[in-house]
Amino acid sequence: MSYIRSLAERAREASHAIAALEPERRAALLRAMAKAVDSSRAGILAANAGDMQRAEDAGTTGAMLDRLKLDEGRIDGIVQAINEIAALPDPVGQVTRSEIHANGMTVEKVRIPLGLIAMIYEARPNVTADAAALCLRAGNAVLLRGGSEARESNIAIARCLHAALAEFVLPAEAVALVEDTAREHVLELLQLTDLVDLAIPRGGERLIRFVAENARVPVIKHYKGVCHLYVDAAADPVTATRLAVDGKLSRPGVCNALETLLVHADIAEAWLPDALATLVRGGAEIRGCERTQALFADAKPATEEDYDAEYLAPILAVRVVDSINDAIAHIQRHTSDHTETICSEDQAAADRFVRAIRSSAVMVNASSRFNDGGQLGLGAEIGISTTRLHAYGPMGLESLTIERWVVRGAGQVRHPEVQQPEDPARAA
Fold first, then answer.
1. 267: number of CA atoms within 13 Å, CB side?
2. Please, what sign has the CA dihedral across residues 285, 290, 296, 301?
């Protein structure tokens, strides 16, 4: 039996033990995990320092290096996230629908765990803890395959989680870490339809396409975040600038950062030059259409490829449009279905925008940066789905469960006209 299949089988078996735990027991397990991470931060940071050095030696820079890095503040964030997940309402067993039929049966829809979730991710060692906590809280086991660049960090964090599982006399494979990061193991993992219930890739577009194109198990996809801000003719100028600055400059290397700014022609001349100057002072590079360049001389020419780009850097593509319909058409042509924002004091325009856009989150006079599980009340997220399956947008605990039917009766039959065959012996 192969390394991956053996690990997946043990993880699958462990999922039954996790699903059987009482909600408070699962919460207590997570609190023990948070404590274990907190008390082992020196070892985690030492492992991460080694990963960072190897990444730098390999030429890694920018957003990838930032995502790999751990420090005291980020360890604090991991501990806090686990504790917050522990404090969330348990979704398992939640009745989402209940009705009594005319025949007296009670028909319910009830949340149950998915089973075994495979998490395939790059950099971001915090995902090791976040994914484990979310999956376990929702009654699942998790099979983690992190990237080679974060191998030692992931192992150090997983050891903390395993210590907590041992304290609760639970199998370590409930949080199964693929320590051998060979690429062929990912391919094998994605074929295990009899063991893995869902695969969630989290990383760059290249990784996600690889998973989606090679998987036989169900996959939640999130290719990239090409997020737009449309500044309507009826926008408040101060609000519009705040949304543009926060969306682009607060953390350019994340998926909910702005990549494209669309501006109605009626407000462009009065608002756009000062707004772009503010962005440039904050470190942004502007790439604009011809009308943008006419209003802002420092703008570089934008190509059509710029409007499809996820820069993950302080670069902003800008286009002046003649109407809200033109803005919507641009978004529909270039969107990655992640996050779109409108700034407008015209309620009818805002409603038109919300109805027309199908992305996983639509913001009205609020920053694109709020499309995040923690910010939307999920406690934490295992990823942001841009796939219209059972989950769309940030995925928290509920997204790691499914609903099934439970029918409670008292001997009801569908066809009472069909009589039970008479026993010949009794008839004689």
1. 23
2. positive
CATH topology of domain 3-222+387-408: Aldehyde Dehydrogenase; Chain A, domain 1 (3.40.605)
Q: What pTM does this model have? A: 0.85
**Interior angle at CA 217, CA 213 and CA 220, nearest 5:** 70
Residue 62 phi/psi, 5-degree rounding, is 65, -140
* Segments of 204-314 assigned E as strands: 227-231, 258-264, 285-288, 300-301
Chain position carrying tokens 């971001």: 124
User: In the sheet where 175-177 sits, what is the strand order?
Assistant: 175-177, 141-145, 116-121, 198-202
Fold of 227-370: Aldehyde Dehydrogenase; Chain A, domain 2 (3.40.309)
Beta-carbon-side half-sphere exposure of residue 227 (alpha carbons within 13 Å): 31
- Evaluate whether 276 touches 241 at the Cβ level (below 8 Å): no
Domains 3-222+387-408 and 227-370 share a fold: no
CA distances from 207 to 147, 201, 214 (A): 10, 7, 11
CB contact at 8 A, 285 and 296: no
- CA distances 226 to 268, 291, 308, 365, 370, Å, are 22, 22, 7, 18, 15
In angstroms, rounded to a whole number, what is the distance separating the alpha carbons of residues 401 and 375? 21
How do 339-343 and 141-145 pair as beta strands? unpaired
| Tokens encoding 218 | 């169900």
Q: What is the pLDDT of residues 110-143, one digit of tens each?
A: 999 999 999 999 989 999 999 999 999 999 999 9
- The set of residues, in sequence order, having a beta carbon less than 8 Å from that of 365 and lying 6+ positions away, is 236, 239, 243, 342, 343, 344, 350
Using one digit for the tens of pLDDT, what is the confidence trace for 2-29? 999 999 999 999 999 999 999 999 999 9
Model confidence pLDDT, tens digit, residues 233-259: 999 999 999 999 999 999 998 899 999
- Identify whether the C-beta of residue 13 lies closer than 8 Å to the C-beta of residue 86: no
> What burial letters (b/e) apply to 207-217, b meaning 16+ CB within 10 Å?
bbebbbeebeb
Which residue ranges make up each domain of the chain?
3-222+387-408, 227-370
C-alpha separations of 266 from 182, 272, 326 in Å: 55, 11, 13
108 φ/ψ angles, rounded to the nearest 5 degrees:
-125, 155
